[in-house]
Design a protein that fits this description.
Elements (H helix, E strand, L loop, with lengths): L1 H15 L1 E9 L3 H12 L4 E4 L7 H5 L19 H4 L27 H14 L4 E2 L4 E8 L7 E7 L4 E9 L5 E2 L11 E2 L14 E5 L3 H10 L5 E6 L6 H4 L11 H7 L5 E4 L5 E5 L5 E5 H4 L14 H4 L11 E4 L3 E2 L36 E3 L17 H20 L5 E5 L3 H11 L1 H5 L4 E7 L5 E9 L6 H5 L7 E7 L31 E7 L5 H5 L12 E4 L11 H16 L8 H10 L5 H5 L11 H9 L9 H4 L11 H23 L1
Parallel strand pairs: 1-2, 1-6, 2-3, 6-16, 8-14, 9-10, 9-14, 10-11
Antiparallel strand pairs: 4-5, 5-6, 7-15, 12-13, 17-19, 18-19, 18-20, 20-21, 21-22
Helix pairs in contact: 2-11
Function: Probable flavoprotein which may function in endoplasmic reticulum associated degradation (ERAD). May bind non-native proteins in the endoplasmic reticulum and target them to the ubiquitination machinery for subsequent degradation.
Family: Belongs to the FOXRED2 family.
Protein name: FAD-dependent oxidoreductase domain-containing protein 2
Length: about 675
């Protein structure tokens, strides 16, 4: 009995040592704070663990030269806040208008210190529950059938305090520097520690390893003081304006391309970094050679005993010695804190720096573990903006909505409209929605049709990668077909080797809209929800399986898809063909006429005119319709008696009475037809 009581007391003590929360978020960077905001607004039990004393600690150090490459456009000519977020790449989503990034900086490319202040205010003004100075050093699982996901997540911090969570949101970003080991790599300086004072490089010759924005940012800082700069990487330079991927080289950092192509000593080289070797001579100069030259040689004997490439090829490109070699190879995810029971595995190929996750941002190895922010970029790497604030603020909201449905029975937010509003709803969203615009080909609006296509249910910004799971993930049903609204670039318009400035690069006629190159809306129609097998077997580079019908809205120079003939009319006709119905809007006179000449009224007449809904007629409205060619020039006596046109006796009350005289017998007539 004593042993049993002792064991029970140990179990109780062990249980008390775990502090429980429904949701644990690791990391108080932008994605962690964004997730905390949505959880707090929903009234959920959560905590954010941050190893530093303040949020956004990554931005306190990086970028090293302090200029962000995320745009901060102050003016767009529009007052629509949703539209303006298309050109604000730094703000997080919130209800507080004070927390727009333009209030923290007016620079088009802001200083990183402004981001640090912004994140601090975001956490404090919204009173988010962030636990600072808490570094999570170990994460494991505890199996329990009563838990949400049949297991709990057990977290341990640097002080050996333990935490237990039902759902784990990883928002740590990618912060471990990529390092390539080769002979002589000890002589290489890292981007994270190299001097940012240009004077320290005056008169020096520099080799930079890497070809991303951090490499070019470093080169830009010292371009004017060095003898020359060489840059070497395994792949060719990728320009963001050619690839349409914001993570590739941005114009703000590409000064070295000018000095290379205009033959001002600087240059770019391609080569596998793992094949390199660095040898230091007696004067401290660094010589580049190849690894196989060092095999079976005694490097301690000095440089004179080592074969250099120029000994055999006297015009070897990097034969000149360097004063410094700088590593700028980017970052990778920290897998070290996760126990093997979580099966957090790195991706493959170019995605090996990210953990493997599903298109729903849930770990492939562990249910209930979601990866947010930059670390979730494997879903759309080199395709969309999911690795950056202006992209993952929307994917984080999508994850929150998935969790709300899964754990709390709150379906994905939706709005039901009559079918007559279908064209207007699509046009409104493609012209102002920021989530569709930034996360093109990844997040989509879903339109679920009701029975007989009399109404539809509109869901915003759903991850298309899990379209087959829509009913399970959203709590919404799709038995009658659906439309999927995406934004896409042209199929052959993006790539490092593409000429995106060729003469006839834009399409201007609606019949050629399918050949549009620039970002434009694409609408997919499915008579039924695609299956998981169809999603797996979809054509390469297609975000979705082959639809029953597809429509491209013509690209627009102003990204303003409101032209009646070029944009709206082709879209409406496409929708009508899919639904076998008439989606036009009609004046009351036409609805009255149709009732006597057609067996079936158009939806606009059934849902509006027959229910006495719509604008009350007036002489000014009638005259405008006649002048615009929208209706015939009926005389006023046809409907308003013999009153003269300018008489004020035709008051609103009289108009209503006259309208009712037409509608009531008509309703009896239609009811009789139905019977």
């Amino acid at each position: 009995l004593g042993l049993a009581l002792y064991a029970g007391s140990l179990c109780a003590a062990s249980g008390a040592a775990f502090l429980y929360h429904d949701y644990c978020i690791i990391g108080a960077g932008p994605s962690g704070l964004q997730a905390a905001y949505f959880l707090q607004r929903a009234g959920r039990d959560y905590v954010v663990f941050e190893r530093s004393h303040a949020p956004g600690s990554f931005f306190a150090l990086y970028p090293r030269h302090r200029k962000l490459i995320s745009i901060n456009k102050q003016y767009t000519g529009k007052s629509n806040s949703e539209f303006n977020l298309r050109h604000d790449w730094n703000s997080l989503l919130s209800h507080d208008r004070r927390l727009l990034f333009r209030r923290y900086s007016r620079d088009f490319f802001p200083n990183a210190d402004a981001m640090v202040r912004y994140l601090e205010d975001f956490a404090s003004l919204l009173k988010l529950r962030v636990q600072y100075n808490t570094a999570i050093i170990h994460v494991t699982l505890e199996r329990d059938r009563q838990a949400w996901n049949s297991h709990y997540f057990l977290l341990t911090d640097q002080d050996r305090q333990n935490y237990k969570c039902s759902s784990l949101l990883v928002a740590t970003g990618t912060w471990v520097a990529n390092v390539v080991n080769f002979p002589g790599s000890e002589y290489v300086e890292g981007y994270e520690t190299v001097s940012i004072n240009p004077e320290d490089f005056a008169g020096q010759t520099v080799l930079i390893l890497g070809r991303g924005n951090s490499a070019f940012e470093t080169a830009e800082n010292i371009l004017g003081v060095t003898n020359f700069i060489h840059m070497v990487s395994r792949s060719r330079v990728r320009l963001s304006w050619a690839t349409h991927y914001v993570g590739d080289l941005r114009a703000i950092n590409n000064g070295l391309l000018d000095t290379y192509q205009l033959k001002s000593l600087d240059g770019l080289l391609e080569g596998n970094l793992e094949d390199l070797a660095i040898v230091k001579d007696k004067k401290g100069k660094l010589h580049i050679t190849l690894r196989f030259y060092l095999e079976n040689r005694n490097t301690s004997a000095g440089i004179d005993s080592i074969t250099l490439p120029q000994d055999e090829l006297d015009n070897f490109a990097t034969r000149a010695p360097y004063d410094r070699v700088i590593r700028c190879l980017g970052w990778k995810f920290d897998f070290s804190i996760y126990n093997s029971s979580l099966r957090m595995m790195p991706g493959k190929g170019d995605k090996k720096k990210y953990p493997q996750i599903k298109p729903s941002y849930e770990s492939r190895g562990t249910r209930g573990l979601f990866v947010l922010g930059t670390a979730s970029h494997s879903v759309d790497f080199r395709k969309s903006a999911g690795g950056f604030i202006h992209g993952f603020r929307y994917t984080t909201r999508a994850v929150h909505r998935l969790l709300e449905n899964r754990h709390h029975g709150v379906p994905w937010p939706s709005t039901v409209y009559p079918i007559t509003q279908l064209t207007n709803s699509i046009i409104k969203r493609v012209n102002e929605a920021s989530g569709l615009y930034q996360m093109f080909s990844v997040l989509a609006d879903i339109i679920l049709l009701r029975e007989n296509a009399t109404a539809f249910e509109y869901l915003e910004e759903y991850p298309v990668g899990v379209l087959a799971e829509l009913e399970m993930q959203t709590g919404r049903k799709a038995p009658n077909g659906l439309f999927v609204v995406l934004m896409e670039y042209g199929r052959n318009f993006s790539g490092a080797d593409k000429d995106v400035f060729y003469y006839n690069r834009a399409v201007g006629e609606a019949q050629h809209a399918w050949q549009s190159n620039f970002l434009h809306p694409v609408i997919y129609f499915y008579k039924r929800l695609p299956t998981e097998r169809e999603m797996r077997l979809r054509p390469p580079d297609w975000p979705l399986p082959r639809p029953d019908a597809i429509h491209h809205i013509l690209e627009d120079f102003l990204t303003d898809w409101t032209a009646p003939n070029a944009h709206i009319l082709p879209l409406r006709r496409f929708l009508e063909n899919c639904l076998s119905t008439d989606l036009r809007n009609f004046f009351a006179e036409y609805c009255f006429l149709f009732a006597f000449t057609r067996q079936k009224l158009p939806p606009f007449c059934r849902q509006g005119y027959m229910r006495m809904q719509g604008l009350v007629g007036s002489e000014g409205l009638r005259r405008h319709a006649v002048e615009a060619g929208l209706m015939e020039d009926y005389t006023r006596t046809d409907f308003l008696g013999n009153r003269p046109p300018d008489s004020h006796e035709g008051s609103q009350d009289q108009l209503l009475r006259d309208h009712a005289i037409l509608v009531r017998p008509l309703q009896h007539l239609v009811n009789a037809k139905d019977e």
